[in-house]
Amino acid sequence: MTRIAVLASGRGSNFEALAAAAREGRLPVRLVLLLSDRQDAGALAIAARFGIPSAVIAPVKPRGRLDARSEERFLAACQGAGADWICLAGFMRILGPGFLAAYRDRVLNIHPSLLPAFPGLDAQGQAWAYGVRVSGCSVHLVDEGIDSGPIVLQCAVPVLAGDSAAALAARILVEEHRLYPAALARLLKEPWRREGRRLVFGSDFTTDAEGKA
Ligand code: GRF
Prior knowledge:
alpha/beta
């Protein structure tokens, strides 16, 4: 069973969606660790409720890029728990090259917009303020940029007449909770490979001249 560590800074509803999917057998994983950079993260109580071990590693700076020492501690905790994959779920920190090299193409994130539109903070508010007619959510592999890695799955959510940023965010969140377990399940169940920025899944592999994948 694939072992997953989840990194979360806040409420933890996406972590809960992953934990519920694993418990209900919809996701072939074992959540082995919940790590947070914040003592007040709601995700910690969710971990306790699901019986998932958790720890807080408080970085030197209250926000932004992780300092090198803290990043080493996050990495050591994930490796110590035997995690095969890392899922970021509202983790408000930027991971550096050391962590990402250790988990190359094995770190996932969920972002509440149709990337590459509206990366960064308050994506739903950015989308609403811009006046787009459609937004949504994206699950992507994490690279060294901000919400810039190869996309695994996306889901569109229409902006409705009379919407507010908060109402749009709430409808996107419902889809996030469905999309994140689905994207992780797909990566674990199907063969896939990277072709540049593109993730190509089993049945879509390009065939060579002899028709072999
Ligand atoms: C979600 O909207 C997620 O897409 C974004 O941060 C938010 C975290 O919410 N990366 P929660 O902590 O999972 O409830």
